[in-house]
């Protein structure tokens, strides 16, 4: 952070401190914005869109990845579609989403969830398929049912992969959030950044950027916390 601050300061001095404000000025403007209602309204709207999209992506993609990774017939049927559409840049579908779901939150949440969901789906599916057969044999040899295999082998093996995809996807979610809030909206940190940029209010622009960075860090830590709660055995093993 110190190095980043020094580089920012040097760049601001080189540019005269107009287009790129000095870091102390940007931080002071950000601290002032934290005491205003309008900033937290923008922050709340963006956080609602990002969190809802992440929950939606996880709720759909993780079970589907688990299903595809554990049932060969389902994987043979669905995997070609997933891997053919995975490289397609989904952001180009934003106009379609706006037409189908309207200009409100639904289209923006669906866009973020679609992009993040693919990452969770592919990572979870690959994680399940990499499980060594001996773990299945161990449970079955003890008389375990399909439910026991799911509970004792599949879910514990898939959860770390799903949470890793979720943690890595926080940056993607915030980036897509900024993009979708640049269109057809008057609320959110993305709108705040673009509005301030259009008005040449660079301190306001950096206030939005710092707010979005703060939200991205909070989402990452939230995902990290959930992983620690859901995958406790992994962290116990590391401590030992």
From TrEMBL:
Q: Which GO terms describe its cellular component?
A: plasma membrane
- Domain of life of the source: Bacteria
Give the principal location in a single coarse category. membrane
Annotated TM spans: 47-69, 81-103, 199-220
List keywords of the entry alphabetically: Cell membrane, Membrane, Transmembrane, Transmembrane helix, Transport
Q: Where in the cell is it found?
A: Cell membrane
User: What is the scientific name of the source organism?
Assistant: Pseudodesulfovibrio alkaliphilus
InterPro entries of this UniProt entry? MetI-like, MetI-like_sf
Q: How does it sit in the membrane?
A: Multi-pass membrane protein
**Protein name in UniProt:** ABC transporter permease subunit
| Family label | Belongs to the binding-protein-dependent transport system permease family.
Q: What Gene Ontology terms for biological process does this UniProt record contain?
A: transmembrane transport
Record domain ABC transmembrane type-1: where: 43-227
Oxidoreductase in keyword set? no
């Amino acid at each position: 952070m110190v190095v980043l601050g020094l580089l920012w300061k040097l760049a601001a001095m080189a540019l005269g401190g107009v287009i790129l404000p000095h870091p102390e000025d940007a931080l002071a403007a950000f601290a002032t914005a934290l005491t205003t209602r309008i900033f937290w309204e923008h922050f709340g709207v963006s956080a609602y869109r990002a969190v809802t999209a992440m929950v939606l992506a996880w709720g759909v993609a993780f079970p589907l990845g688990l299903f595809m990774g554990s049932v060969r017939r389902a994987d043979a049927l669905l995997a070609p579609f997933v891997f053919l559409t995975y490289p397609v840049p989904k952001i180009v579908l934003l106009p379609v989403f706006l037409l189908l779901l309207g200009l409100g939150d639904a289209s923006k949440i669906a866009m973020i969830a679609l992009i993040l969901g693919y990452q969770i789906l592919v990572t979870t599916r690959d994680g399940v398929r990499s499980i060594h057969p001996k773990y299945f044999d161990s449970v079955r040899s003890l008389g375990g049912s399909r439910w026991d295999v799911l509970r004792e082998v599949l879910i514990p093996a898939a959860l770390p992969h799903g949470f890793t995809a979720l943690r890595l996807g926080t940056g993607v979610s915030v980036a897509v959030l900024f993009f979708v809030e640049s269109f057809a909206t008057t609320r959110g940190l993305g709108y705040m950044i673009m509005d301030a940029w259009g008005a040449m209010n660079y301190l306001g622009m950096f206030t939005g950027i710092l707010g979005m960075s703060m939200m991205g860090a909070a989402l990452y830590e939230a995902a990290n916390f959930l992983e620690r709660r859901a995958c406790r055995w992994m962290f116990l093993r590391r401590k030992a």
